[in-house]
Specification:
heterodimer; A: Rossmann fold; four-stranded parallel beta sheet; 19 helices; globular; disordered N terminus; B: alpha/beta; Rossmann fold; 53% helix
Chain lengths: 403, 365
């Protein structure tokens, strides 16, 4: 299959993401110039709240993924390593630290405040501490305790997170002389909720055969939900995306012409090796569901904005009990009629990778769904064993083909 | 002074003690780290037993890039499950968090996950942790058919405070530049305190002769910076290379016993205060509190060099090591990071590095 043909598999709306990202960063620099505080945040922090405070959020994790995808990450990784950071720690964090230590002259403006809520991993705490010590920037470390049962979302656990949000508001008001605007919060919550609703509706359309939206689309299309929550631009993007995907469904047009295998991808994408998704597609296999894509959407209740945001911070995919995670994993197998799972054992993301084998075991036992587990890093391309991974994919697809 | 037979025997083979508990019909609750209040376990009539990484290398259930320490603890939990009545795991770092997930899916015994706020500062954290401790209390009462009343809890706090005081007393004998009690011995006392019945270990520590025992070690005064060390071989390597381990900030060392629980009408609140206000684990915030503690130890124990001992995949230590180095460089205190995966296989390399470090320190003197 030639390159041009495979290129056309990507949605028109997806192609606009690159521009949207550049605009987003340009606005961050503008905000900085206008004296508006810029926050470096970990991705599952209360962005809607920051909009109501007039703080502009940028996410070093997203920056790391982008640098990796654009092949400009190595200088930052190496700078962090020169300063003593081990290659065994998260590559996003090495990129972010390397960027912070090398003058912050790229797309991401220097932070005025560092905000994190420990939810998807504990590395957030360490990474943000390190940034704080290197840059001397004020730090807010919040905790979203591991959600052990759905009842936690309506108990002292929720109350704890809501109170921390109120502390964050107080800290930002005092430090930057800002005024928290409740109306703006409600507006941001409405917009954020609408973007989530649209994205979830779009993801559901992947149940259709052939699947209209593939892994390369979903990997890019999450961006507005990562850092643009609470904006009209994000809502417009998802409206446009949904329209395009619906049209594709009505035309019965899939990502690939001859869809032979419908796959689940478990993990963060490998940003420097997007062609791996194409490698599957070229062999008749399309990704129809990823927990990662779904994790960004969360329905909010504008009548209870703070509580809603607190629930969202708590409920991000990796922060809910393993039984609840497995339940969703297994549901998706039926819902999207999946016939194989690809589990990416990501050296950088230990909180994701550690229980993967146990999950896979359950998957194999309950559904007899074949799975492939392979190891690599999401953003650091230096130890990527491409040939070896591809030969394992070939073998996996062969097994699927024989079923 | 040498460790009494019982204590050193227990440290050589802590698993044997589990067999004894089983034979005696004692309910043992396996726990993962020093954020878990042994006081509550004891007040419920159970024997707390801290699960070491000894005897297992790694678990086949997790990838090789997951901290081998957590991986070996996981392997031990599953391998030794028959000796335990249940488990409690605390939320410290990612591997320990996920260890709970895996144990929950793989073990049959009751398991409790204690959510420890990663930012230990402030009233909100203490309040939340208190509620977690109340949930833990309910877990103990419901699963082991016991009632934890104030009197039992007060007694347990007393015996644990006594243990901490005794350990600290031994420890302080090395303050102000004195070489009295070597690191191997001190670590044995602390580890035994996590495995043996508290009253028994207290009696043994009290009966120890307090003569100097540091003759086998060198004179270069070292502080050990790290997380949990159960394998005494690494301590022996350090001391045989010519070091005198004057102090440490290990969670199987000084961080285990440094602070006491204050008496209060609300004992659960008193526990929450103690565990939130002690020097935090490297996985927690604020890091400044840890650096201050290390700084205090270096001054108090007249330390000449610091060895950071970390598992090769221990995220918290790998981030922190950068800041420890920065702080110590400003203080002109030399520091070396020793990271390893498998001590048995890497002992020679580690020994050579420590010897070179000691040599450079001796030249500086």
């Amino acid at each position: 299959m030639n390159g041009e043909k495979s290129k056309s598999r990507i949605l028109q709306t997806t192609k606009k993401i690159g521009e949207l990202i550049l605009e987003y960063f340009a606005r961050a620099s503008e905000a900085k110039l206008q004296g508006k505080p810029v926050a470096w945040i970990t991705v599952f922090t209360p962005i809607e709240l920051l909009r109501a405070l007039g703080i502009y959020p940028v996410a070093p994790e997203h920056f790391g993924a982008m640098c990796s995808a654009r092949n400009i990450i190595l200088d930052y990784l190496e700078e962090a390593e020169r300063r003593g950071y081990s290659q065994n720690i998260c590559s996003y964090s090495r990129c972010g630290l390397g960027y912070a230590l090398s003058g912050m002259t790229g797309l991401m403006p220097p932070p005025d405040i560092l905000i994190t809520f420990r939810n998807s991993c504990d590395v957030y705490v360490k990474w943000w501490q390190s940034l704080h010590l290197h840059l001397g920037t004020p730090l807010f470390v919040g905790e979203a305790p591991y959600v052990l049962t759905p009842e936690d979302l309506d108990s002292y656990v929720l109350d704890y997170v809501v109170k921390q949000l109120m502390e964050l508001i107080k800290m930002a008001e005092e430090r930057f002389g800002l005024k928290f605007d409740e109306e703006k919060l409600v507006e941001a919550v409405k917009l954020s909720d609408r973007a989530s609703e649209l994205w979830l509706e779009t993801l559901k359309l992947r149940k259709h055969k052939p699947c209209p939206l593939g892994g390369r689309d979903s990997a890019s299309d999450i961006f507005p939900l990562v850092v643009m929550q609470g904006t009209k631009e994000a809502v417009q993007f998802y409206e446009e995306l949904l329209r395009e995907v619906k049209e594709k469904v009505s035309r019965k047009e899939g990502v690939i012409e001859n869809e032979r295998h419908r796959l689940l991808f478990d993990g963060i994408w490998i940003w420097y090796a997007f062609d791996l998704i194409k490698y599957f597609e070229d062999r008749g296999a399309v990704f129809v569901y990823e927990p990662y894509s779904e994790a960004w959407a969360y329905r909010l209740d504008p009548s209870k904005p703070l509580e809603s945001i607190a629930k969202k911070i708590l409920s991000m995919g990796l922060n809910i009990d393993i039984d609840l995670r497995i339940e969703r994993f297994l549901e998706s197998i039926k819902e999207f009629d999946i016939d194989g799972a690809v589990l990416f054992s990501n050296r950088s993301c230990k909180s994701w990778s550690a229980p993967q084998l146990v999950t896979a075991e359950i998957l194999g036992r309950k559904f007899d769904v074949p799975y492939l587990i392979f190891e690599a890093d999401m953003a650091d391309p230096r130890q990527y064993a491409e040939a070896q991974i591809k030969s394992r994919i070939d073998a996996f697809l062969e097994v699927l083909g024989e079923r | 002074m040498t460790a009494s037979t019982a204590i050193s025997d227990v440290c050589k083979n802590p698993i044997e003690l589990l067999e004894k508990y089983k034979e005696s019909g004692i309910n043992v609750l396996g726990y993962s780290c020093s954020y878990i209040p042994e006081e509550l376990i004891i007040s419920g009539g159970l024997q707390p037993y801290r699960i070491p990484n000894l005897g297992s290398v790694t678990s086949p259930l997790v990838p090789t890039f997951i901290c081998q320490f957590a991986s070996a603890v996981l392997q031990n939990i599953l391998r030794l499950e028959e000796f335990f009545s249940g488990f409690v795991i605390a939320h410290t770092c990612d591997p320990m968090w996920r260890l709970y997930d895996i144990v929950k899916k793989k073990a049959r015994k009751p398991i409790f996950f204690l959510r420890v706020p990663h930012n230990v500062e402030g009233e909100l954290s203490i309040d939340f942790f208190k509620k977690e401790l109340l949930r833990f209390k309910r877990f103990l009462e419901e699963n082991f058919d016991v009632e934890i009343n104030n009197e039992a809890l007060r007694n347990a706090i007393e015996v644990c405070n006594m243990n901490r005081n005794l350990l600290k007393e031994v420890y302080m004998r090395n303050s102000n530049g004195k070489n009295r009690v070597n690191g191997l011995y001190r670590l044995q006392l602390t580890l035994a305190s996590m495995w043996m019945p508290k009253k028994e270990v207290n009696t043994q520590i009290k009966s120890l002769s307090l003569e100097n025992n540091a003759t086998r070690t060198g004179n270069v005064r070292i502080h050990i910076n790290g997380t949990a060390i159960y394998d005494l071989n690494i301590i022996e390597i350090v001391e045989n290379a010519g070091c005198f381990i004057a102090s440490d900030d290990l969670c199987t060392g000084s961080r285990y016993f440094w602070d006491n629980v204050n008496d209060s009408e609300d004992l659960i609140r008193a526990l929450a205060n103690r565990y939130m206000q002690r020097t935090p684990c490297p996985s927690h915030e604020p890091i400044e509190k840890r650096l201050q503690f290390m700084d205090f130890m270096i001054e108090k124990f007249k330390v000449q060099g610091v060895l950071t001992i970390a598992n090769r995949f221990c995220d918290p230590m790998l981030y922190e090591a950068v800041h420890v180095r920065e702080m110590l460089t400003k203080k002109h205190v030399p520091v070396m990071l020793i990271d390893y995966e498998n001590l048995g296989q890497e002992a020679g390399r580690i020994k050579a590095r420590i010897e070179a470090f000691i040599e450079s320190l001796s030249e500086l003197r």
